[in-house]
Design goal:
Chain lengths: ~110, ~140
């Protein structure tokens, strides 16, 4: 799992590369929840480099959504490929998140909510 | 084309990673379509992690994994020698609640059921056998 970051104003963009599963979910969770507790409460998670996400990864995303809401922050997901979108759909996760196609669309969405 | 491979891995994150890596290699070698590869890797992750959780009280289980590519698709066979344990009987998870009410338990097995074309469990020779198949001609 490779994790890279970029900033756009108050937004922190976290780009993930690889697969989010039992092996890598703890690293993703530690990174994202860590950023949140350090004060980065406006987050974009870019899935463009993600091959697939398993239930271990879905659990992390659920925790991230709750913690972001509790911190009065905002969260958008972007760049999802077909596999990731399919798993989100099957799990009934699509209504729980702001999901847009591109990083630019995510920035626009969180900048002008 | 017919091809198969098998390996034994411990029920640990490293063992699960090894099995998924082995399937990646198998898929590349035999030209398995990418929409089948990710489904198989996700299913391996879900079933093996379930076995690892189930076996943790009795020590680290050893899990036998076999992949076979036939004319119709890919078959994954996963065998452990733990106590009888059929996670496929678990109730369907909540996929319609709010962010607050949602519980993630059971999602993994539900995903496997929906992403694979056939999922079977059998208790045989004092072992748990999981047989998962996915067709190579669908799911585009």
């Amino acid at each position: 799992m490779d994790i890279t970051e970029a900033r756009a104003g108050r937004l922190l963009i976290v780009a993930l590369r690889g697969r989010i599963d039992t092996t890598t979910a703890p690293q993703v969770e530690h990174h994202l929840l860590g950023r949140l507790s350090q004060g980065d409460v406006h987050l974009i998670v870019d899935f463009a480099g993600i091959e697939y996400i398993s239930s271990a990864g879905l659990r992390v995303m659920l925790a991230l959504a709750r913690r972001t809401r509790d911190a009065h922050g905002s969260l958008a997901l972007c760049g999802m490929g077909e596999a990731v979108q399919h798993v989100f759909r099957l799990a009934g996760f699509l209504p729980l998140f702001v999901i847009v196609d591109s990083r630019d669309a995510a920035i626009a969405r969180l900048t002008n909510p | 084309m017919q091809a198969s491979t098998s390996l034994s891995v411990p029920g640990t994150p490293a063992g699960i990673d090894e099995a998924i890596g082995a399937f990646d290699c198998f898929g590349r070698t035999h030209g398995v379509p990418s929409h089948v590869v990710w489904r198989c890797k996700l299913a391996l992750d879900e079933i093996l992690s379930n076995i690892a959780r189930h076996g943790s009280a009795a020590g680290t289980p050893l899990i036998q994994v076999a992949f076979a590519l036939g004319g119709d698709g890919v078959c994954l066979e996963i065998v452990d020698d733990l106590q009888p344990f059929n996670p496929l009987r678990a109730p369907a998870p909540d996929t319609a609640g709010t962010l607050e009410s949602r519980k993630p338990g059971g999602l993994g097995i539900a995903l496997v059921r929906q992403l694979m074309d056939d999922v079977k469990y059998e208790r045989r020779d004092e072992r748990n056998h999981f047989c998962l198949t996915v067709r190579t001609d669908g799911h585009h």
